[in-house]
Amino acid sequence: MFFVLLLAPVIGVHLYSDWKNADGPAVRERERRRAQWDAEDRKREIKRAQWDAEDRARLEDEEHRNRTALYWEGPSPDNTCLRYGARMYSARLMNIPVRVDGKKWCQETEIIIHGDLIAKPDFCNDKSGEIFGHWLRLNEPTCTTIWEEFTDKGCVAPGSGKRRIDAKLGLLQYIDGSWREMCSTTPADFWGHHLAGPDSCVNTGAGVWGIWVVEDEEC
């Protein structure tokens, strides 16, 4: 009995060794196949990445060709000035391909207005499927008004310390609709004062007048 117990570990080692040696080819074959599958997976991933890159390049090329065909119809100025020196312009974006976000393309399309290259509109909108861009132009010559001769209307009231000055608004091209905005935003320089606009405006029918009330110790 004691002899059998002593031999048991030795027999176990031999049996394990025999099993391992017998199973060795199968294990190696499984490892070889697993390595082959992993290599094939890596090849497929590389190929898929190449296809994705080709698809992106094709889409970018198609988008570039589509964008180069875009053009603005116009632009056209609004009928009235927005304020002193400012006018809105609008234009319709033409040749927009189907199945694209027209407003997004509108926001990314440049235009030339009065010789100035403008990278993108201030905003875009969709009018029944037609895409329009809109630009606010500052320093607009046709929206530049001036104050003609300033008239001293005297003190507002005795002891008020304030004097009233009137002036007629000149070069106003659009009486209807924008006279108030043009009057209130036309700057003035007189008697050492620089003011962004008058305190009030009046349209007499014969013209638009600005009214200032300034500090004056003589009043």
UniProtKB/TrEMBL annotation:
Residues 1-15 form the signal peptide. The keyword Signal applies. It comes from the Eukaryota. Keywords: Signal. This is Cyanovirin-N domain-containing protein. It comes from Gymnopus androsaceus JB14.
